Amino acid sequence: VDFTVEVERSLRVLDGAIGIFCAVGGVEPQSETVWKQANRYQVPRICYVNKMDRAGADFFKVVTDIKEKLGANPIPLQIPIGAEYEFTGIIDLLSNKAYQWDDESLGKDYYEVEIPEDMKEQVAEYRNALIEGAAEENDGLFEKYLENPNSISEEDIIESLRKATLEMRATPVLCGSSFKNKGI
């Protein structure tokens, strides 16, 4: 009860928030409660799916949870390269580039790498969904999308999603492993 009151007080003054979800546990009951409180105070949010390196991690299940349990419109900006013990990096759907973190430096160093061959189809699907999501939020961008989806720039996507996020029509989703500084 004390926690709920503190959250209420905090939400009254926030301009935005980051919902952090466990890649294993997904959306938990307390997260649902806080999400509903944030809705009441119209606090825009982005989401971060943490602990991608833990056994049982499933980024895509968490994205589905965010949609089904919270009623949000999650739009992944990144997808993970691997999961659990094989989580090595992320693919940035905005720039269409892959990044891997160096375990030796505890995540301090990261490198741009080629998108894994076995993920190219999935990346194309999620990148297209990202572009579609951005285009749906902006009439001018939607016309541009109908003419040539490839003509939409990274800046166009960011601008459209920023506006949709502030108006609480979209919720960007990122991922990583905070403990190992991957995706941070």
**Side-by-side strand order of the widest sheet:** 1-2-8-3
Mind summarizing the main beta sheet?
A: 4 strands, parallel
Class inferred from helices and paired strands? alpha/beta
Uncertain residue segments = none
Q: Quick check: average pLDDT?
A: 92
Quick one: how many beta strands? 8
Instruction: Count every helix, treating DSSP H or I runs of 4 or more residues as helices.
Output: 6
Cα gyration radius (Å): 17 Å
- Span between N and C termini? 32 Å
Return the string of H and E elements: HEHEHEEEEEHHHE
Task: Specify the overall morphology.
Answer: globular
Relative helix content: 25-40%
Percent of residues in β-strands = 15-25%
Structure overview:
With 184 residues, this protein is an alpha/beta fold. 40% of the residues lie in helices and 20% in strands. It has six helices and eight strands, in the order αβαβαβββββαααβ. The strands form two sheets. It has a four-stranded parallel β-sheet with strand order 1-2-8-3, with helices on both faces. α2 links the parallel β1 and β2. α4 packs across α5 and α4 packs across α6. The protein starts with a helix and ends in a 9-residue tail after the last strand. The model has no long low-confidence stretch (mean pLDDT 92).
